[in-house]
Amino acid sequence: MEWFTAPEYWLSRLVFQRALAGVYLVAFLTAALQFRALIGERGLLPVPRHVARVPFKAAPSLFHFRYSDRLFALCAWSGCAVSAALLAGADGLLPLWGGMLLWLVPWVLYLSIVNVGQTWYSFGWESLLLEVGFLAVLLGNDEVAPPIVVLFLLRWVLFRVEFGAGLIKMRGDECWRKLTCLDHHHETQPMPGPLSWFFHHLPRPLHRVEAAANHVTQLVVPFLLFAPQPIATAAAALMILTQLWLVLSGNFSWLNWITVVLALSALELPDTSPSAVPDAPAWYQAVVLAVSALLLALSYRPVRNMVSRRQVMNRSFDPLHLVNTYGAFGSVSRVRHEVVIEGTDEDVPREDSDWREYEFKGKPGDPRHWPRQFAPYHLRLDWMMWFAALSPAYAGTWFGTLVERLLENDPATLKLLRRSPFPPDAPPRYIRARLFRYRFTTWRELRETGACWDRTYVREYLPPTRLAGVSQRS
User: Fold this and answer.
1) How does DSSP assign 157-222, residue by residue?
2) Which regions of 231-353 does DSSP assign to beta strands (E)?
3) Which of 36, 123, 284, 424 is most buried when burial is the number of CB atoms within 10 A of its CB?
4) How many CB atoms lie within 10 A of CB 395?
5) What would the pLDDT profile of 391-436 be if each residue is shown by its tens digit?
6) Quick check: bond before 230 cis, omega within 30?
7) pLDDT of the residue at 273
8) Are strands 453-465 and 430-440 parallel, antiparallel or unpaired?
9) What is the pTM of this model?
10) How far apart are the first and last CA of the chain?
């Protein structure tokens, strides 16, 4: 059985599985708390409308058979419950086949959510969680030692995550080759964290070191994952340190954390395996080897994309998200723009009307409001507002509906915000949106004003708009 299992990774598997269950829990919690406003029956991009035009074969989901907000909530909260059970080690209390089925449940539920999530679930870490979650089904429980081939596949995913991200940077924005991207990135990233202001103000030579270290970690270190121990452990540990640095510098949902989880599987931790581990059943060996062969075959298109000069980021090549291609920040913005949404209850909107600003939880708004840490929790609307500021094309399918919901004081939509300037029983008469340029203040400006941001008006993003059919007050 030595050719099939690696008992020395017993503790590594345990740590990996519990950490992955924690990420699953955050993902399902994010879905449960935000879905009504985003993809619910009255959401910005309703699921029923989506499944009516996208066939099951193209995006398999339980919601193709039936959808209701109540059913979605049941799936999301069930995912939370199963994830919590896995976090507590429930899979170890079941027979091998039962443990595998228990790990399969959150994968099926989250696949069903992602495949109807549309724009709100188009991020690379969604596919990454599904790819890693599927491999977790094959890892087994306390009845068998970890299969070598599955441990290899986990490293193969980690390799593609890091190396793909490194290649997209070198092929993309020239600032990565000049080591100058981090002069801007901490300020212009989608959602800064509480320490991003300080990272931005690090000396520029240190930013060069950050960029160079990133290239080493993503373009050189991944190859060492396949070296003998302890070299592979050292490579994985270096990746973990890099990811924790990124956790401190910004809010990237669970992208950094799922990468840390992957790296944990490559660490050779102290051997805690039982003195006598039963041989893996023949059926288990057959399933693991057959599925592993399929996954290696499916790697062809992601690898071809990764080595192509026309490499694209974060693409799934199969509807089950079994093997994907990844990447991040192939280009870095030099200037930060933000869409600021305002409302007024006056009958005739004028420039000097009493316009009151809606405040989001994570995206910059009030210059005095210091960014907070939300990751690994994912504020989906806040992230898409960053894209909307880059180009109205990114918001074309949902921004108008968002404005409509704000004009209605829709409770589900308002729950996605930090603060609405209007009471629940008195919605605004008009909504407008304006584009501002944001920059981090200097040390001197911070001391004098207490504001971490400085903003400058750029242009109108959406003129004053009201609900159709609503007349002005007499």
Assistant:
1) HHHHHHHHHHHHHHHS-HHHHHT-GGGTHHHHSSSB-TTHHHHHTS-HHHHHHHHHHHHHHHHTGG
2) 315-316, 324-325, 336-344
3) 123
4) 22
5) 999 999 999 999 999 999 999 999 999 999 999 999 999 999 999 9
6) yes
7) 76
8) antiparallel
9) 0.95
10) 85
Q: How far apart are CA 76 and CA 456, in angstroms?
A: 41
> Which amino acid belongs to residue 109?
L
Alpha-carbon torsion 39, 43, 45, 48, what sign? Answer: positive
What is the pLDDT, as a whole number, of residue 125?
95
* Average pLDDT of the residues in 254-275: 91
List C-alpha distances in Å: 32 to 105, 170, 378: 16, 38, 12
pLDDT tens for each residue of 70-109: 999 999 999 999 999 999 999 999 999 999 999 999 999 9
Nearest to 143 by CA among 19, 2, 273, 267: 273
Can you tell me whether residue 148 is helix, strand or coil?
A: helix
Helix (H) or strand (E) holding 419: strand 417-419
| Structure-derived torsion over alpha carbons of residues 281, 287, 290, 291, reported in degrees to the nearest 10 | -140
pLDDT exceeds cutoff 50 at 474 = no
Number of Cβ atoms within 10 Å of the Cβ of 457: 10
Rounded Cα–Cα distance for residues 4 and 250 (Å): 40
Q: Is the pLDDT of residue 437 over 90?
A: yes
Question: Which strand (E) or helix (H) includes residue 76?
Answer: helix 69-87
The token pair that represents 412 in the structure block = 């589900």
Residue 473 has pLDDT above 70, yes or no: no
Cβ atoms of residues 231 and 224 within 8 Å:
yes
